[in-house]
Amino acid sequence: MKFQKFGGDKEVEALISIMAKLPGLGPRSARRAVIKMIEKRKIILEPLATIIGSVSEKISECVQCGNFSTEKLCGICSDDQRSSHIICIVQDVSDLWAMERSNVFSGTYHVLGNYSSTYAGINPEELKVEKIRNRVEREKIQEIILALDATINGQTTAHYIIEKLRDTGVVFSSLAHGVPVGGELDYLDDGTIRAAFTARKNV
């Protein structure tokens, strides 16, 4: 996409172009955001530049669950106040953060990163089910909550995981139908997530 020149400065135009790639932002809203950052340079732009540099240098995936973290273990996995015997499986980090936002789950997570989908060309083995199996055995997991999107790919993936791990004896449950068909967790309000979690059912 070719961006209109807003101020003649190449660096500013490059910043607007990058900002416009963020979800929910287009060229006009990115321009407004950049103008505000420049106007509030000391309290927005300079601190933002510092923290972005730090995050870019340190951020990686939690070795246990796949959440974003600047440490080997994320804050959730390293929190000894959380239940270590229940895992909530989600597609990606945005879904994990949606669950945390709803403040309904006190266990730990496992981020798949991909869904099994012949349409997307994703091999089921890429889901690394053996890593989940290892966690079940190592952490003595009693329940796995499948908090996957109510889409064909999400439900196909859920069934695949259940079949591969059924011999472990772990209890599987899924979010209730408060999650609309085709719905994605990150776009649901907190109340809907809490209701779907509370009314989850064994599968």
Protein architecture, described:
This protein is of the alpha/beta class. It has two domains: 10-58, RecR Domain 1 (Helicase, Ruva Protein, domain 3), CATH 1.10.8; 68-202, Dna Topoisomerase Vi A Subunit, Chain: A, domain 2 (3-Layer(aba) Sandwich), CATH 3.40.1360. Helices cover 41% and strands 11% of the residues. The chain contains seven helices and seven strands. Strands 4-3-5-6-7 form a five-stranded mixed beta sheet. It has a two-stranded antiparallel sheet with strand order 1-2. Helix 1 (10-19) crosses helix 2 (27-39) and helix 4 (93-102) crosses helix 7. The N and C termini lie far apart (46 Å).
Descriptive terms for the model:
203 residues; 11% strand; 7 helices; alpha/beta; Helicase, Ruva Protein, domain 3; 2 domains; five-stranded mixed β-sheet; two-stranded antiparallel ribbon; elongated; 41% helix; Dna Topoisomerase Vi A Subunit, Chain: A, domain 2
Largest sheet: 5 strands, mixed
CATH topology of the largest domain: Dna Topoisomerase Vi A Subunit, Chain: A, domain 2
Q: What percent strand?
A: 5-15%
Q: What's the architecture of the largest domain, going by CATH? A: 3-Layer(aba) Sandwich
Inertia-based shape: elongated
The topology string of helices and strands comes to HHHEEEHEHEHEHE
Number of helices: 7
The beta-strand count equals: 7
